[in-house]
Amino acid sequence: MSEAVSGEWPLYEVFVRGKRGLNHVHVGSLHAADDEMAIRHARDVYTRRNEGVSIWVVRSSDVTASSPDEKDPLFAPSGDKVYRHPTFYEIPDNVPHM
Amino acid sequence: MDEHSLLASFESTIGRHERIEPRDWMPEGYRKTVVRQVAQHAHSEIIGMQPEGQWIGRAPSLRRKAILLAKVQDEAGHGLYLYSACETLGVSRAELTEMLIEGRQKYSSIFNYPALSYADVGTIGWLVDGAAICNQVPLCRTSYGPYGRSMIRICKEESFHQRQGFELLATMMRGTDEQRAMVQESVDRFWWPALMMFGPPDDDSPNTAQSMAWGIKRNTNDDLRQRMVDMTVPQAAVLGVTLPDPDLKWNEERQSYDFGAPDWDEFKAVISGNGPCNTQRIAHRRRAHEDGAWVREAALAFARRSNEESHE
Ligand SMILES: [Fe+2]
Ligand SMILES: [Fe+2]
């Protein structure tokens, strides 16, 4: 485990179901020592205002992404690094004006 | 594809006002600029908890304590959204924290000013979060996807921050003469530092043009500062406070307020480490980080052991 070497908690991707009838949507990521803690942190960080009825978390290193090969030349930073996680979905929130 | 055509496709994405996403090819300068701006922004949210956090235990009622606690917790959340956006560019959280506490990355100059009176909690909400909103609303359309999405979440939460500050001040203004004087004194102290939050004037902001060409920034510093002044003057009138600027007056022709220049020497001193609280802010952050080390290690050790046990 690489995180054991650096001492950094692994990165998790967080998906939230906003309400019944909607898909889980990617909302961001966070660090946690294990799955259970990731769920707990996700609740605190991403759903402080009842933004969700259900949360999924998945280790970023377990996400397999399609690779846009033609855009990945040799000199580009490699696409499979843990931190280069793709953000799959647009967040359907509107921007409020004060 | 060679670098030339990659650059062309990057620029055409920017030109179509579409977003750049983490796995896209991007020029190294773009990546560095986004990392610097998002990290600085994240650090500001985290350090920004300190001045107000000191008032949680001293806020005058349970209601005010609960509001302030929720606000400070939001700022922690904002920092975490932004760190997560920054990490999509290949920087680790640990590195970002190190760069903050070693002074290699900056945070907003405003948080190096102290919160001396309880009225400052209101003024910070009204003016500092108000300035943050001016800055952040256009950043919801910034060209780097994860940054823009973080900004959308943040903006949804910021209006509560500004409103609770305004309401706190309005309540004090309905109180005693002493309370009104406390509000005015606080506004006098925060007005200029709040205007400095937009950064140096445009003719002294060498990176703005490139950042705007890349769609990272959407407005110049002076544009945003003007917007802040125009928004705030009528709010100050409703509140019944004056703003400490003798040059502040309506310009009929421009349909905007004219206003004086902040003390840029003070601004430079504060961002280069010589503000009233720079040392204290970083020392506090460092202490919190170091004091938490055993917790981070223990949680990892626990996770590792649970993992082994479940495989036995
Ligand atoms: Fe914030
Ligand atoms: Fe805020």
Structure at a glance:
The complex is a heterodimer of chains A (98) and B (312). With 98 residues, chain A is an alpha+beta fold. Chain A is built from two helices and three strands.
Question: Can you put this structure into words, describing what you see?
Answer:
The complex is a heterodimer of chains A (98) and B (312). In chain A, 17% of the residues lie in helices and 21% in strands. By secondary structure, chain A is α+β, with helices and mostly antiparallel strands. A three-stranded antiparallel beta sheet of chain A has the order 2-1-3, with helices on one face. The model of chain A is unreliable at 1-5, 69-92 and 94-98 (pLDDT under 50). The N and C termini of chain B lie far apart (49 Å). In chain B, helix 2 (28-47) runs antiparallel to helix 4, helix 4 (62-87) packs antiparallel against helix 7 (145-173) and helix 6 runs antiparallel to helix 10. In chain B, a hairpin with a 4-residue loop joins strand 1 (249-251) and strand 2 (256-258). Chains A and B meet through helix 1, strand 2 and helix 2 of A and helix 1, helix 4, helix 6, helix 7 and helix 13 of B. The complex binds fe (ii) ion (FE2) (2 copies). Residues 45, 75, 78, 132, 154, 158 of chain B line the site of one fe (ii) ion (FE2). Residues 75, 129, 132, 158, 161 of chain B line the site of one fe (ii) ion (FE2).
